[in-house]
Specification:
Strands 3-4-1-2-6-5-7-8-9-10 form a 10-stranded mixed beta sheet, with helices on both faces. Helix 4 crosses helix 5. The protein has a single domain, classed as Alpha/Beta hydrolase fold, catalytic domain (Rossmann fold, 3-Layer(aba) Sandwich). It is an alpha/beta fold and 352 residues long. Strand 5, helix 2 and strand 6 form a beta-alpha-beta unit.
């Protein structure tokens, strides 16, 4: 793996602000998320919140580890004055709320509140089979998170929850599309998996019994769209073929699709991002393809991260393969694209 000198790394990691907003960069605050409101208290959520903050004292390193570079943030600092746009961020299969901390931090600097829940059953910390089988509940998780932010004693007065952007990586892309109105079609997905049984989404579907006789089709195929979701961004989405194509064609919010053009065997871009662009309403889609792999949407790895993982968690070192300057550079391009898109669709307007 290529090693970066500290100066070069800092150049890559410095967050950039939207065009014309260089003089309004905010300090970044980080807090924890806890969602347990009824009627879904049996599926409690936790995660993280990044937000524009009032800097007090010294910032701390958030997310720093032997594997990952962290970011400077003020833990539980006061929220900056104003009402800010809200982004809900959905992690991929077996990921967690910190996976896209690089993006959340930059967005908070640019004046956006970002909230990322851990999805039960498909997170690093909870892989329980019962929760894992309820893939459609991921969209409910996002809706419950938006409601929790609207009612939050600290952030409720500081976020705009009537028009929210939803960003998701991999299976998180599946979640944000469902929250935007896409509906699961088990028949369509089963027919697709008969042709491509080795696809990651199909392997997961077989594992959780999605095609079995015991699955509750009424619940699985129910609508989980949330009218508050006003814009969607997918980061190398997975699971597009699980949706009824007609429901994708009816999605109302504009969609920015960002795909990973380097084939690493994890997600077939032709059957995922390309298929999504072809199916969402004409004129609502924007597409950006980057010469990176599926896992380059995770945080930036340290130079010796792959060797460390090979010792601690053999087989998981894939998360840091080819994760040097190209990953960090891609992050800047993704951020620019996301901010430009959110600005274009009117999400970034801040209310005093």
């Amino acid at each position: 793996m290529s090693r970066l000198c500290s100066t070069t790394l800092l150049m890559f990691l410095i967050a950039v602000s939207p065009p014309g907003a260089a003089d309004t960069r905010h300090a970044v605050g980080v807090s924890t998320l806890a969602v347990d409101q009824p009627p879904r208290a049996a599926r409690p959520l936790n995660g993280h919140i990044w937000y524009p903050a009032v800097a007090k004292g010294e910032p701390q390193r958030f997310g720093e580890s032997p594997v990952w570079y962290g970011f400077e943030a003020y833990h539980d600092a006061p929220v900056a004055e104003g009402r800010f746009p809200l982004v809900v961020l959905s992690h991929g299969l077996n990921g967690n709320s910190r996976n896209q901390a690089w993006l959340a931090t930059r967005l908070a600097e640019a004046g956006v509140v970002v909230v990322a829940p851990n999805h039960p059953g498909t997170t690093t910390f909870d892989r329980s089979p019962a929760a894992r089988a309820r893939l459609w509940a991921r969209a409910e998780d996002l809706s419950r998170t938006i409601t929790a932010m609207a009612q939050h004693p600290v952030f409720g007065a500081s976020v705009q929850t009537d028009r929210v952007a939803a960003i998701g990586h991999s299976l998180g892309g599946f979640a944000v599309l469902a929250a935007a109105g896409a509906r699961i079609s088990i028949d369509h997905h089963e027919a697709y998996c008969a042709r491509y049984p080795g696809s990651g989404d199909c392997i997961l579907a077989y594992e959780i019994g999605l095609f079995g006789a015991s699955v509750d089709r009424v619940t699985a195929e129910a609508p989980y769209g949330d009218a508050r979701v006003a814009a969607v961004v997918t980061l190398d989405v997975g699971g597009v073929q699980a949706f009824d194509p007609a429901s994708l064609a009816r999605i109302a919010p504009p969609v920015l699709v960002i795909g990973a053009g380097r084939d690493d065997g994890l997600v077939a871009i032709e059957r995922e991002s390309h298929a999504l662009v072809a199916r969402v309403p004409s004129g609502s889609d924007r597409y950006l393809e980057l010469p990176v792999g599926h896992l380059d949407f995770l945080n930036v790895c340290k130079p010796n991260a792959q060797s460390f993982i090979e010792i601690e968690e053999p087989g998981d070192d894939i998360v840091c393969r080819n994760a040097g300057p190209a990953r960090a550079a891609a992050h800047l391009r993704v951020f620019d694209a996301v901010v430009g898109f959110l600005d274009e669709v009117g999400i970034l307007a801040v209310t005093p």
